[in-house]
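During the second half of the funding period, the structural biology subgroup turned its attention to how the target accommodates small molecules. The most pressing case was iron/sulfur cluster, which had performed well in the primary screen but for which no bound structure existed. We therefore specified the complex as follows and requested a full 3D prediction, including the ligand pose.
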Amino acid sequence: MHYNAVLMKNYVPVLDIPALYKSFNEPVTREDCGTMCSLHNPAGKPFCCDICQAVPVAYRQEWDYLASHSDMWHEWRGDECAREPVDPKYLQSETPEHLKLLACRGPVHCSRNFRAISCRQFPFFPYVTSDDRFIGLAYYWDYEPVCWVISHLDRVTPDFRREFVATFDGIFNMWPDEFESYAVLSEEAREFFNGKRRRFPVLHRNGGFYLVSPGSERMEKKPVEKINRFGPYKGQNLPINGNFTDTY
Ligand code: SF4
Ligand code: SF4
């Protein structure tokens, strides 16, 4: 799908947050992936729900909704990670204007209905090719060593993938700037993997799994069970022929 990122520049749409939440509610996997990864986090929390590991974001329109409908969130102050308090100004200055840095009350008090879109999509972001096509899901590469889902892409359900694609198709159709921000992130992903001389997986909107060569963007379809595993998950349920070596 191609989106015109020039028209409607700086336009910020009204988002129907309850409708978005209703239509993007599928868990990423049938397993509770938080119980899998939290075993490897000394804090005992899922990595993506540990404020010392990740600061959640929400669209500003989403924050308006969350602030008035739930007491689960507050604006990030920078002191929520007790062992590593930081001055929030730096991260705020690095965060795009349309996003708000938040902190929640933690996984014990998490209410599924009030999870932000960034929680629902994690560990994935919409992957956009250099010729402006949103073709599927790529993952936030920083979390390769810790996220169980990234090492078990075969567990990502078709329903989650379908809802993810439909959600971002809808958002991008209304909001070209948001499409553009993911195009930039996708470019950063290609630069990162190019530096590592590694191909990276894309869960394609057509249902297939592909490895993308970051320089040429050539794509090769692969059986999902041959996608790499990382960190503590390396030895888990290895395919019969061992791990796939994704150099190029
Ligand atoms: S998405 Fe990844 S980091 Fe977050 S809870 Fe699941 S396995 Fe853990
Ligand atoms: S709202 Fe829930 S899913 Fe999102 S970061 Fe907090 S605990 Fe995790």
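Two results from this model are relevant to the next phase. Helices lie at 17-23, 33-37, 60-69, 88-94, 117-121, 158-174, 176-196. The chain has one domain: 17-233.
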